[in-house]
Amino acid sequence: MNQPKDDGPALTQQELPGTFADLGPLGRESALEPGAVLWREGDAGDHVVLLLEGRLEVSHQTPEGEELVLRHLYPGAVAGEMAALDGQARSATVRARSPSRVLSIPAVRFREFLRERPDVLEQLFWLQLERVRSLTWRVSRTHHRAITDPLTGLYNYGFFRERLAMELERAQLTGDTLALTIFDIDHFKHYNDTHGHQEGNKVLQKVAEILKQTGRRGDVVARYGGEEFVALLYGAGPSDARRFAESFRGAVAVHGFPGESSQPSGRITVSGGVAVFPLDAQDDLALVKAADERLYQAKDGGRNRTVGGATPHL
């Protein structure tokens, strides 16, 4: 994370913002050196701090033991109020990231003050709501990066396998069908060797875009790895899945990629294998295996074709 260049203007107790100004007489000022810890995650919530000068860092330890920085606090910010109010343990660690001054208020005095000043309590509520919104946005971005292939923008292999297991379980409970298609770009290594990886990446991106456009809203399309792609079609039977696979194959074949005349067939094409639950397999591993076997049948049959559910495209 980039370090902010400016910690913001220092404040005196008399300059505390808005409704927090009246908290000044309740606390005691103290100075903090960079790295000093105000409290650690799990500590008792026995006081609240208002930051007068410097910058504080709020962090949380992940289940893997890594320190995750949640946010930075600047002069005028309040920290530790939730643990002081509900008596629970601290939910995060707070430390100084630069030379800082804080106003520390005992939790008991803080609670007594709030009984007399509900307007301050309301202000704290809105601050907490804003933090939750900000954290939700950051978690959403982090989650999106974790499940997305960075090159193509499609879902990645890990997310696909999770969704496959989940959707198959749902299909087993409801009696619905579930189709899986696996595609491979024909002679992609030849294209990469001829035009370079940068141009090859552009082909992968365009093929991914075509696949996403071909799918229905709600279909799970993902990069399976290398030049392979998958699509998970909930509720699709053999005819629907074959129609989807052929639509995608045909769209790639007629797209017109730069430099494709150097390909053995004179153009960029894909081959595909289709398998449908429960007709072709009863579990997720068997479904992937069935689709993969049909993909290789399409490859062995001359490429630029799909196999599964009926006579392959010729």
Q: How would you portray this structure in words?
A:
This protein folds into 2 domains: 13-146, Sandwich (Jelly Rolls); 157-307, 2-Layer Sandwich (Alpha-Beta Plaits). 39% of the residues lie in helices and 23% in strands. The chain has helices at 81-86, 107-116, 118-147, 157-174, 188-195, 197-214, 238-253, 284-300, and strands at residues 28-32, 37-39, 47-53, 56-61, 67-73, 78-79, 93-96, 100-106, 178-185, 220-225, 228-234, 270-277, 306-307. The strands form 3 sheets. Strands 10-11-9-12-13 form a 5-stranded mixed beta sheet, sandwiched between helices. A 4-stranded antiparallel beta sheet has the order 1-8-3-6. The longest helix has 30 residues, at 118-147.
Q: What is CATH's topology name of the largest domain?
A: Alpha-Beta Plaits
- From the N-terminal CA to the C-terminal CA, the straight-line distance is 53 Å
- Tell me the CATH architecture of the largest domain: 2-Layer Sandwich
Number of domains: 2
Q: Order of strands side by side in the largest beta sheet?
A: 10-11-9-12-13
Radius of gyration: 29 Å
Which structural class do you get from the secondary structure elements?
alpha+beta
Give the integer mean of the pLDDT values: 85
- The number of strands is 13
Throw out a few tags for this protein:
disordered N terminus, 5-stranded mixed beta sheet, Alpha-Beta Plaits, 8 helices, 314 residues, alpha+beta, disordered C terminus, 2 domains, 13 strands, 4-stranded antiparallel beta sheet, 23% strand, single chain, Jelly Rolls
